[in-house]
Amino acid sequence: MKGENPNPSPRSGAAAELLCGVNAKALLDSVDAFLFDCDGVIWKGDKLIDGVSQTLDLLRSKGKKLVFVTNNSTKSRAQYANKFRSLGLSVTQDEIFSSSFAAAMYLKVNHFPPNKKEDGEKRVQLKSSCFFEHDKNVGAVVVGLDPDINYYKLQYGTLCIRENPGCLFIATNCDSVGHMTDLQEWPGAGCMVGAICGSTGREPIVVGKPSTFMMEFLLQKFHMSPSRMCMVGDRLDTDILFGQNAGCKTLLVLSGVTTESILGDSSNSIQPDYYTSKVSDILKLLGE
Amino acid sequence: MKGENPNPSPRSGAAAELLCGVNAKALLDSVDAFLFDCDGVIWKGDKLIDGVSQTLDLLRSKGKKLVFVTNNSTKSRAQYANKFRSLGLSVTQDEIFSSSFAAAMYLKVNHFPPNKKEDGEKRVQLKSSCFFEHDKNVGAVVVGLDPDINYYKLQYGTLCIRENPGCLFIATNCDSVGHMTDLQEWPGAGCMVGAICGSTGREPIVVGKPSTFMMEFLLQKFHMSPSRMCMVGDRLDTDILFGQNAGCKTLLVLSGVTTESILGDSSNSIQPDYYTSKVSDILKLLGE
């Protein structure tokens, strides 16, 4: 994966520490920025998680930068800012780094013209005389979570990758699970990416977490050392691994997909620096 | 993969021999049965490949058993027999071994009740209050080529595999390419299988080629040694590998997806015993 730090955090491997009053204070003193995943950390579906608003206010009042780093590719930065606003949180567009933004940045730094938009409602005609035409000028296929996945799109993307010379295959992320509703889990972008891997025999360039591609833009914006940042997330193989790959401190919250038993299971090799049940524990532990 | 022969054919690695009069005669004398792939060997889409009918007649007249082994899972054995008949070939149902038959046999030998049929036209409702129900009694998800792939089916299969204890994930095959029309290639079963791998983090049990699962049923039926069989196919990583895994002789035909330059490329490690341009070369080389 592009952009991964060859020197993982020295803590990886050692068991995570439960967040307490003492280490929460030390963590706060040792970092200048908190990077938050959103689904399972800030909100679940359309519901804000308890105490998040007050916790973010506290961190800002202590001079910490707040950044939101999400693998969700179904919204633009502007749509994300609207979602924060609708939940009563004041977050600006340039504090948001989504995998759709990362894909756009990847194309920009590689000098690609803006991509064409496909029509999600198109259906394929499988008559024996029908020849499926695709645009020979498409130079990149970007695959993210798409509940409108169908054979037309799969054939279109496959033909571009197989037949257009040098065509890139970019994945916003490879998460197996997507948060389409708050009641249960749904197939994530890893499903659509897996389909294109299966039809092309190619592996994608991943721009979302745990790839640290987004970190480059974040550093350009905020001018601080990754070692003075703490990544806060609910997923070990994306959020925590991203933080470790980038050289940040890491805090796992149990308000999303990871349970304490998954964290402690012998099959899990990814250990954050700290873990706690939810973001607002910080507020409580600091006695604010 | 289940059922693979740990002792690959001694010829694998050595360069394939071009079929000629001398080795064609020797091949014919050394085998009692020919196993044919269909797409790209017997037909292309809905068109019979030149000389196939006369070649099959010759082989039968010389007392050879003919068997048809296909990864195409979109037809039953009866539908396959109809396709042969419509192209003027007399082939009986029990000479046909398809990956859909293999999947059914896999379930049968593992004592599964017949599977429910899903409605390909169902679409998913993604309202935040909607809970997607799945049948907790489904014990196996069988994935094959499906041009009606959609998010509903992906969620259904994913939930069964993730949440039903012991639920099997069976792939009819993992071919990247499917022959939906004769004018171009389309995403094959590998696309749908990749999607479910991506959403479940699980690897499938593959029952089609190159897995030799089907060979067990073929041997029960025909009572002959695999070393007295020749697998004829157009794909290296399915047909020829299947033949080699099973201990058969192998003949690659260039009338399908493999070109002579792919065969000879340094990146290709799969070498059949023999290769020729098309099945009817046998007829010509034997001077019949």
Automatic annotation (TrEMBL), chains A, B:
InterPro entries: HAD-like_sf (IPR036412), HAD-SF_hydro_IIA (IPR006357), HAD_sf (IPR023214). Coiled coil: none annotated. It is an enzyme of class 3 (hydrolase). It catalyses: 2-phosphoglycolate + H2O = glycolate + phosphate. Its EC number is 3.1.3.18. Its cofactor is Mg(2+). Substrate binds at K209. Mg(2+) binds at D37, D39, D234. GO terms for molecular function: metal ion binding; phosphoglycolate phosphatase activity. Keywords: Hydrolase, Magnesium, Metal-binding. The active site is at D37, D39. One of its GO terms (cellular component) is cytoplasm. Divalent metal ions. Mg(2+) is the most effective. Belongs to the HAD-like hydrolase superfamily. This is Phosphoglycolate phosphatase. The gene is LOC111281168.
